[in-house]
Specification:
Distance between the termini of chain A: 35 Å
CATH superfamily of chain A: Metal-dependent hydrolases
Radius of gyration of chain A: 18 Å
Strand content of chain A: 5-15%
Number of domains of chain A: 1
Largest interface: A-B, 17 and 17 residues
Oligomer: homodimer
Order of helices and strands of chain A: EHEHEHEHEHEHEHEHEHHH
CATH architecture of chain A: Alpha-Beta Barrel
Helix content of chain A: 25-40%
CATH topology of chain A: TIM Barrel
Number of strands of chain A: 9
Largest sheet of chain A: 6 strands, parallel
């Protein structure tokens, strides 16, 4: 067993004891979980309250993570540290003071946008990306100050490049893949990946089928070859996993993710009217016990043990250590 | 200078640099400040945000206190630790999950009622006190669990006695005086003071003129003789100061405290139509530099140095140590 913890930097499952036990069985020590797609501050707090109930109910399996050391503690105690994040800045409403409040409540990642224009920046589904807004510039400075990571996974190209430029601390794209491997609105250009990684940022590879070459039929070797290509181009130290696992979710949830309360007609996002629901996961990555398939795949494409440990958690751990405290 | 920190367990001033500097000059190491009278959760968070701005602006004077050790740290660093409390349970709305959330945000005291009936218990201005409600019983258990102190300063007699009975941890009446000394709806009966102190609870003496014998004209010796009487009856270890200092507040604030949004006619609380505003403070207690007058007064009525240190902060410090962490 590796000395390095295993971290998945994005999941949004239909949480249950079963899933927490799978994290335990799979030896997953840190998971960044989404607690808001379109929620207001008060609605997001309701989701925190639900997590508090899970922490109270399953203390032998999970606890709230606030720092990199909590991942190390999770490994020692054979539990999983849960880190909170927003896929949309809706919980901070129009109030910059809520950034510090959310950090105090344990939130560690916030996307400046989901798929649409937000108050902070432009999402990757808008026709025109006007970059980081006036509020967005202030919010990035405040996130940098308190230690709330800027995540641009769902943002447009221009907004992402501007955020990288504005942010004084390394940023993250927690869950996406390179567009050169699989063309998709959510996958990222060489320019974005280069600028992100050169500024010390982290990129998490997604296992969400719409982000994969050949979708649900993508082979683990294809996925790992893509990782090898990226590591060769930009350096292995900037990459990790952000699986985007949405285990056990009913299709109503992907409808909520895509449509929130903003549309009277149905937006299908990366799906379509005839394939509106969650796509099937590739058979080699179905739940939290599947990470060993990726490790094996990485070995198969030529990574050494240290590199595999770095990709499977070590790189995120270093980033967590650097990112979650106040700016020095 | 005493080795024991100085703690005031209730203030609601119109906060300013001037007042924070007076805390510094007066050597006040811990202050429990009110951050909600009638606010919803979201409105209370706005008040927290304002405190965050003050902490950022005056780091040499104040910081957020979360434990007794923060008071010790304040004394070493010559600063003041600020502890948050609610005078009304309105910020937890009808949602028990908000108790843990508020504790995470730093809240350490919550009154089960202000002057009126609340969702949890009955305030001391209602004609009939029906005791702790169904939600109130659950809320006390949750407050005990997480380490949020039950404060019954504004509650009715029956509600207070029931809360003492229900609570598995010592409670507080942070700011009131004995009714035997000065009859007032807000002052407490011998029965309440006896039950509170016998269960390990703390009682903070108020300097708010409506709670004082002879009001604004009360002499420091009268006040200290009352303390000596109480210490003789129930033991010096259960008493401290909760001044209820409302320095520099405009009279609109006492109107808000008394009326919130619940009345179309004006309630004058302890005042009257012809004396609707804040009463004048006694000349020996006007701001945070005045605590030495109380110490001298306590010496004058025969307390020894150790007893004075206990009343001026040591007793609250012990209570803070015991009360602010999760139930063991």
């Amino acid at each position: 067993m590796s000395e390095t913890p295993l971290i998945d930097c994005l999941q949004y499952a239909n949480w249950s004891e079963k899933i927490f036990r799978q994290m335990h069985e799979g030896g997953v020590h840190g998971v960044h979980v989404t607690i808001a797609y379109h929620e207001t501050f008060r609605e997001m707090v309701l989701n925190l309250e639900q997590w508090n109930r899970w922490f109270e109910r399953y203390p032998e399996l999970i606890f709230i993570g606030r720092s990199g050391d909590d991942v190390r503690r999770a490994k020692v105690e054979n539990r999983t540290a849960i880190f909170f994040g927003f896929q949309n800045p809706s919980p901070i409403e129009d109030d910059i003071g809520l950034i510090k409040i959310c950090h105090t409540l344990g939130v560690r990642f916030m996307q400046l946008t989901y798929n649409n224009q937000s108050l902070l920046a432009t999402g990757c589904y808008e026709d025109e990306d006007t970059g980081v807004t006036r509020f967005g510039r202030q919010a990035i400075a405040e996130m940098n100050r308190v230690g709330l990571v800027v995540d641009m996974s769902h943002s447009g190209e221009r907004s992402t490049l501007e955020a990288i430029e504005i942010s004084t601390r390394p940023m993250a794209i927690t869950h996406a893949n390179p567009a050169r491997w699989h063309q998709a609105l959510r996958n990222k250009s060489d320019t974005v990946i280069k600028e992100l990684t050169q500024s010390g940022g982290m990129f998490g590879f997604s296992l969400y089928p719409h982000h994969l070459k050949n979708g649900s039929a993508c082979a683990v070797t294809e996925f790992c070859e893509m990782i090898a290509d990226m590591a060769g181009r930009y350096g292995v130290e900037h990459f990790g996993i952000g699986s985007d696992l949405c285990q056990d979710q009913p299709d109503s949830v992907v409808t909520w993710m895509r449509n929130g309360r903003w549309s009277n007609t149905t937006d299908y996002g990366e799906g379509s009217k005839t394939a509106a629901g969650f796509p099937d996961q590739p058979d080699w990555f179905v739940n939290n016990t599947s990470f060993s398939n990726i490790s094996k795949g990485l070995h198969g494409v030529g990574f050494c043990d240290d590199e595999i440990a770095a990709i499977m958690g070590g790189n995120w751990l270093r980033f967590y250590d650097q990112s979650f405290g106040p700016e020095i």
